[in-house]
Design goal:
Blueprint lengths: L6 H14 L3 H6 L2 H8 L6 H15 L9 H5 L6 H12 L8 H10 L9 H18 L16 H15 L18 H4 L16 E12 L2 E6 L10 E2 L2 E4 L6 H9 L5 E12 L2 E11 L10 E4 L1 H4 L6 H19 L1
Parallel strand pairs: 1-6
Antiparallel strand pairs: 1-2, 1-4, 2-3, 2-7, 5-6
Length: 334
């Protein structure tokens, strides 16, 4: 959950997840739709699909216990070098380096590494430094930790300290160099280059995209479709929609192409703005009237609002559903 996501965002998701799926075996057995629903809103849904695959791998092995060795952790679906190193060192005190965004920032500043850390030679050097650090830490036993703090050993303490240093002191903006415990060893501080490191490549230019969605009702039920496998947000639900080239496009014509029927009227329900990586997306939703839609796809359903609430939606279409529920409730009150 913490990959690409801040701790404050993750906490309520984690608490809800642990209530519903408290063990590896419960995750392995859970319906994929329930797993997606618990993850709804966190984005990067490949993470949760990989998480369930990893759980299924673990329970299929004799003993069904989470692996304790770096190589075995790395072999799990969706686990890369950084995640495997973090688990192996923090949970099991193994001599395994880590390199996340916070650690990269700390190390590039301490050692004044001016190359883009994503370039191969710089990345190899950073991994090498991180490995030497944790190897050295392993030689020095820790004193007993004060209660209730539990630390598995010096490798755990070292890697957690590097991450925490980057997250709270050696920050990307307005770093607190005066509070840094290694400030006297920082080459970037000595050469007044702290603010220019790490030397990250410029991000891709922001690209606007425009979608329209159609909210269609039939006999008190609403039409939704499930996104296919192999695409962004695979297996999540959404209202019928299409991307258009510009705002001047004829929404009625788009509705015909999406619904294969001509609506009598289209009423604007809501507009949702959101971002995915470099894309800035506008989704406009319209309530469709006077349109006899025949939907036969296996990935489409006509459902009441109460049933729609139970499905995992993409973030933008969840906001459309919220607007629909609000407008429906308003109509009932009126």
């Amino acid at each position: 959950m913490l990959q690409q996501t801040q701790v404050k965002t993750v906490i309520p998701y984690w608490e809800r997840w642990m209530r519903e799926l408290p063990t590896i075996s419960s995750l392995a057995r859970a319906r994929p739709e329930k797993v997606l629903k618990l993850w709804e809103g966190l984005g990067y849904y490949t993470r949760v699909r990989n998480l369930q695959k990893a759980a299924q791998t673990i329970v299929s092995d004799p003993g069904g216990r989470f692996p304790t060795q770096f190589a075995d952790i790395l072999a799990l679906t969706g686990v890369g070098r950084y995640t495997a190193g973090a688990i192996a060192s923090i949970a099991f005190n193994q001599v395994a380096p880590i390199l996340d965004g916070n650690v990269i920032r700390v190390l590039t500043r301490i050692f004044a590494i001016y190359a883009d850390p994503k370039q191969r030679h710089a990345n190899v050097r950073l991994w090498g430094i991180a490995e030497r650090f944790v190897q050295e830490a392993a030689k020095h036993p820790l004193p007993p930790a004060p209660q209730p703090l539990t630390i598995s050993g010096p490798c755990s303490a070292l890697n957690q300290s590097l991450m925490e240093l980057g997250a709270t002191v050696c920050t990307a903006r307005q770093p607190r160099c005066g509070d840094c415990p290694v400030r006297n060893h920082c080459a970037a501080r000595a050469t007044h280059r702290v603010d220019s490191l790490p030397n990250l490549a410029r991000r891709d230019a922001v690209t606007p995209r425009h979608f329209v969605a159609f909210v269609v009702q039939r006999d008190g039920r609403w039409l939704v479709r499930r996104r296919p496998a192999g695409v962004l947000n695979a297996h999540l639900w959404e209202f019928p929609n299409a991307e258009i080239d510009n705002r001047a496009s004829n929404v009625g014509e788009v509705a015909i192409s999406v619904l294969h029927a001509k609506p009598r009227s289209l009423q604007k329900l809501t507009a949702v703005k959101h971002s995915i990586t470099r894309y800035r997306i506008l989704l406009e939703a319209y309530v469709v009237a006077g349109c006899r839609v025949s939907e036969r796809s296996d990935d489409a359903r006509w459902l009441a609002l109460a049933d729609l609430e139970k499905l995992p939606f993409t973030s933008a279409h969840r906001k459309v559903l919220t607007a629909l529920c609000g407008s429906t409730a308003q109509g009932v009150r009126n």
